[in-house]
Amino acid sequence: MLSEFIASISVFPMLIYVLRKSYLFGVFAWLLFSSACLIKALEFLQGGDYVNFCIFGMGSLLFVMMARAIVSRNSETFIEVTAFSALACIAYFPFVFIPSFNSAIIEVTVSLSASLGKMLGYPMVAQGRVIELNGSTIEIILACTAIESMALFTGATMGIKADKRRKLKAFLISVPVIYFLNLFRNVFVAVSFAYSIFGEESFYIAHHIIAKAFSFLALVAVAYAVFRILPELSELIYSLREEIIRGVKGD
Q1: Kind of pairing, strands 125-127 and 130-133?
Q2: What is the mean pLDDT of residues 218-246?
């Protein structure tokens, strides 16, 4: 929880940076966020999750580069990116730190996953945070609700400067779709584990390899659809890339 706590604290300097445009708050915010990502990366490394270790490790480096670039190029691009990043954090962290929110999203996800499993012909039973099937149980944790990806796309679609109708459309084809696809992911992992579809390593293969690959491809497809609706978002990302390169070089 240390990484989540540090990341949540970074929201405050993010908001001050957006409102006051003082580069010191921007630098402080992104260094805090970078340290949170680094701690999270090390947690994944200890748990043997090398994919997320690489993702969060590279993220940590990127955010350090952003902080460095803000020092020399305190542009509107950094302010816009910080604004939707803060919004994404605000959408995410209540589910981390407020027990009632945490329990609600997990238990609803368990219930919907089990219902989907039954529709597909598998006698799944929802018990609080656990899915029971064929004498096996799988516990659903917060990461299994897709809240991280949903919060990210909430920030990206609703925090960008664009027409409100297009923002709403982008939100509706991303966040609900991500949640719905995640239910299929949970069913797939539960069925693979309960019936040992891939042998003794069924859970590892289903969860850490196949499901992760599926999630990545799904997010790429969703992102592509969002970019088609909100070209401002792709332009902002391209602008961010250019600003970071120039800022790190000291141009």
Answers
A1: antiparallel
A2: 94
